[in-house]
């Protein structure tokens, strides 16, 4: 059904996707069902944004492979796509910047749609003048909402010292919004309750309970691959084939960045943000 009265939402998942697993894809399906069940939203697109090599996480293989695996994994979906913009950047960028980039893309796409409709363009210009430019801090009602999609472990990581800037967290939950899938070992509701910033924006944080608890993790998949064990049915078949064809994930690749500090920790510990 079309539901023209509902707010359109685009979901953006940022992460290593090293490699992409079936659970990453399930996150999107769970989030869409949850948001649409509220009767308020219509989820129109899902975007997977693999992090760039500059993130320097231990065992992180080249972005080109991670992007291609995500592309193969989403081939069968009619609404989830991989976006290579973040992954192709040489340096790591904050998630808040990634969200802003994608929001600007949504605004630009809406602008193109509008160009044929001069009345709306005129209205939009007046709106932009009032709001201080096309990419001002305010969200526009004619553009879909963009929400960050993540697992509860990422929400919990907000409290790790020197990992996230507090203004970025405030922008993500305050300006955009967060959809968080529960994950074994992380208590998302407790975490929201304990943080004043998150609690203040709780209406913009949707915690989605995964009843079919599923502990698939990319770490587990990489470990199985190193040991020559099967990972079939944990990953889409096309991704399993790609891993085999390119001989990905070995003891050697797991040692990548082993003695390097994760990019955000490097950046914020130095106070150079
Ligand atoms: N089983 C899961 N349940 C809920 N969320 C998940 C699950 N697996 C991954 N996610 C979420 O997917 C996003 C991308 O995560 P990431 O690429 O780190 O996957 P991962 O499986 O956690 O990998 P790794 O083990 O390398 O950390 C994050 O928001 C993470 O919380
Ligand atoms: N300060 C920040 O913006 C910040 C800090 C840590 C991780 N992240 C992002 O969160 C995601 C986490 O991915 P992993 O769970 O695979 O480490 C990545 O996309 C990474 O860029 C962002
Ligand atoms: Zn992870």
TrEMBL record:
Associated pathway: Cofactor biosynthesis; NAD(+) biosynthesis; deamido-NAD(+) from nicotinate D-ribonucleotide: step 1/1; Cofactor biosynthesis; NAD(+) biosynthesis; NAD(+) from nicotinamide D-ribonucleotide: step 1/1
GO cellular component labels: nucleus
Molecular function terms from GO: ATP binding; nicotinamide-nucleotide adenylyltransferase activity; nicotinate-nucleotide adenylyltransferase activity
Cellular localisation: Nucleus
InterPro entries membership: Cyt_trans-like, Euk_NMN_adenylyltrnsfrase, NadD/NMNAT, NMNAT_euk, Rossmann-like_a/b/a_fold
A GO BP annotation: NAD+ biosynthetic process
Assembly mode: Homohexamer. Interacts with ADPRT/PARP1.
Protein name: Nicotinamide-nucleotide adenylyltransferase
Organism for this UniProt entry: Megalops atlanticus
């Amino acid at each position: 059904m079309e539901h023209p009265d509902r707010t359109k939402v685009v979901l953006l998942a940022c992460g290593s996707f090293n490699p992409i697993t079936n659970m990453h894809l399930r996150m999107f399906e769970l989030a869409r069902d949850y948001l649409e069940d509220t009767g308020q939203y219509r989820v129109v697109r899902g975007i997977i944004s693999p992090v760039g090599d500059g993130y320097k996480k231990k065992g992180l293989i080249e972005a080109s492979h991670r992007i291609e695996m995500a592309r193969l994994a989403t081939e069968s979906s009619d609404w989830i796509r991989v976006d290579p913009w973040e992954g192709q950047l040489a340096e790591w960028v904050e998630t808040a910047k990634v969200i802003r980039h994608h929001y600007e893309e949504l605004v630009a796409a809406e602008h193109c749609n509008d160009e044929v409709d001069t009345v709306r363009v005129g209205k939009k210009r007046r709106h932009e003048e009032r709001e201080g430019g096309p990419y001002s801090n305010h969200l526009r009602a004619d553009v879909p909402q963009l929400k960050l999609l993540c697992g509860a472990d990422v929400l919990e990581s907000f409290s790790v010292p020197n990992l996230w800037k507090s203004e970025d967290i405030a922008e993500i939950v305050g300006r955009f919004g967060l959809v968080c899938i529960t994950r074994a070992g992380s208590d998302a509701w407790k975490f929201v309750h304990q943080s004043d910033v998150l609690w203040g924006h709780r209406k913009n944080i949707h915690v989605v309970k995964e009843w079919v608890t599923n502990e698939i993790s990319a770490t587990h998949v990489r470990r199985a691959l190193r040991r020559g064990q099967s990972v079939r049915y944990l990953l889409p078949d096309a991704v399993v084939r790609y891993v085999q064809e390119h001989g990905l994930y070995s003891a050697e690749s797991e040692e990548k960045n082993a003695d390097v500090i994760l990019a955000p920790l490097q950046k914020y510990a130095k106070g150079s943000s």
